[in-house]
Amino acid sequence: MAGQRYGFTANSVTSVSMDPPLISVCLADTADVHPAFSQAESVAVNVLAADQHAVAQAFATVGADRFAAAHFSPGELGPPLLDGATVSLEGVVHQRLTAGDHTIILIEVAGVVVGGGEPLTYQGRRFHTLNPL
């Protein structure tokens, strides 16, 4: 698995702690990328921009050539950062916790790249953007 890139579309990324800066991502134990993320030491979380719904779809599709959907650049720790993302977070795996049929991956954020723009959201089985009330 060394030297290969793996990714998935997360349905939830949560802020956990400010000191140290921790976020969490949940991954189904049945996910095709679970073995890779069970061993990864560093990871990236890319918050997709409003025009990147095809990237979200590709990374949610089993068997898809996920990294062909967009251009990525290696981060300082090595994980791929999505060009044009609203924000990319890079960090080291702090801890993994088993929770039912998922693994909670706690990530200590070591770097942030802010791209700007409006983020892509997903609700009710549809992609959306944020609109002011």
Structural features, described:
It is built from 2 helices and 9 strands. The chain has 133 residues and is mainly beta. The chain has a 5-stranded antiparallel beta sheet with strand order 1-2-7-6-3. The protein has a two-stranded antiparallel sheet with strand order 4-5. The chain is globular and about 35 Å long. The model has no long low-confidence stretch (mean pLDDT 94).
Q: Low-confidence runs (pLDDT<50, min 5 residues)?
A: none
- The pLDDT mean sits at 94
Please give the count of helices.
Answer: 2
Overall structural class, as computed from helix and strand content, comes to: mainly beta
How much helical structure, as a percent, in the residues?
A: 10-25%
N/C terminus separation: 46 Å
Radius of gyration: 14 Å
CATH architecture descriptor: Roll
Beta content: over 45%
How many separate structural domains?
1
Largest sheet, in brief, is: 5 strands, antiparallel
Q: How is the CATH topology named? A: Pnp Oxidase, Chain A
- Total DSSP E strands: 9
CATH superfamily: Electron Transport, Fmn-binding Protein, Chain A
Sheet with the most strands: spatial strand order: 1-2-7-6-3
SSE arrangement, N to C: EEHEHEEEEEE
Sum up the overall morphology in one term.
globular
CATH class: Mainly Beta
Can you give keywords for this protein?
11% helix, 9 strands, 2 helices, 133 residues, mainly beta, Pnp Oxidase, Chain A
Summarize the model shown:
With about 130 residues, this protein is mostly beta strands.
Task: Present the secondary structure layout.
Elements lengths: L12 E6 L2 E8 L5 H6 L2 E6 L5 H8 L11 E3 L5 E3 L4 E13 L2 E13 L5 E4 L2 E4 L4
Antiparallel strand pairs: 1-2, 2-7, 3-6, 4-5, 6-7, 8-9
